[in-house]
Design goal:
single chain; 280 residues; alpha/beta; Metallo-beta-lactamase, Chain A; 9 helices
Length: 280
């Protein structure tokens, strides 16, 4: 049986960070890569993983499927990069599944790149299929299974990311592993149910020490749309994942490691403070 690989392609936030790309995760099974989110810098990390981690499936021309949790910039800025990179060498169109608004975003990509597309699809460029730049988009209409092929099932479930509606988490099931990806979310009872007993829970986190240094207005905002370390410990205590992977890590002026130590103070399971290109 083919083993499932989980490679982190981005662990950052909207705050610029030269060491952390925007949100991105690759799940690889049986020769296929399934991407979750496409934040700034994710594609460069995918290429690094292809070359440095022997993940041939992350050759951009071979990536066939991307799932988007929500349409914030730090989860989508490399979506056009993914669609554009070497598209004329693709054998199949990229497929994208995500929330309402994804088709409009895709149409905007076509408009943004219209000059490039026109140049590459006309004249002497030996492009075999001039339509291959196009993305097959599916907008999620309701919670439930949104993908079930090649032994891989992806279930979308609604999470609470404040005014961003809809926003989704995903549960991925392969023959040998179960993985839940939180997306951006406040404390979620639904997520707890989906994550119970999974092999890997990949969850966003806000460090509380650093949060206390922000203005009251920003504290209120982050508490309403993200998950604090104490809340994540509560989630993990109820779900009991095999490994809790911290991503989309925000600690502000506090050391990054405080996100992990604050969770571990209240939860005694395995916790990993993820870095870009970590593999599980």
């Amino acid at each position: 049986m083919a083993e499932t690989r989980v490679i982190v392609l981005g662990t950052g936030t909207p705050v610029p960070n030269g060491d952390r790309a925007g949100s991105g995760l690759a799940i690889i099974h049986d020769g296929e890569a399934y991407l979750f989110d496409a934040g700034h810098g994710m594609m460069q990390n995918a290429i690094k993983a292809w070359k440095d981690l022997d993940a041939e499936e992350l050759n951009p021309t071979k990536i066939k499927q991307v799932f988007i949790t929500h349409l914030h910039s730090d989860h989508t800025l490399d979506y056009p990069e993914l669609a554009s990179t070497y598209w004329w060498r693709r054998e199949e169109r990229l497929k994208a599944i995500g929330p309402k608004g994804l088709q409009a975003m895709t149409d905007g990509f076509y408009e943004m790149m219209q000059a490039d597309i026109a140049i590459r699809t006309s004249g002497v460029n030996p492009v075999k299929d001039p339509s291959m730049y196009q993305v097959d988009v599916t907008e999620i209409e309701q919670d439930g299974v949104v993908f079930d092929e090649n032994g891989v099932t992806v279930e979308a479930f609604t999470v609470d990311h404040g005014e961003v509606k809809p926003a989704y988490g995903f549960k991925v099931t392969t023959p040998d592993r179960t993985i839940v990806i939180s997306g951006d979310t406040a404390y979620s009872e639904t997520l707890i149910e989906k994550a119970k007993g999974v092999d890997i829970l990949v969850h966003e986190v806000i460090g509380e020490e650093g949060l206390r240094g922000l203005s009251p207005e920003w504290q209120e905002y982050h508490r309403s749309v993200h998950t604090l370390t104490s809340e994540l410990a509560d989630i993990a205590n109820q779900a009991q994942p095999g490994t809790l992977v911290l991503t989309h890590i925000a600690t502000y002026a506090a050391p990054l490691e405080t996100a992990k130590t604050e969770v571990e103070a209240l939860y005694d399971g395995k916790v990993v403070l993820a870095s870009d290109l970590d593999e599980f």
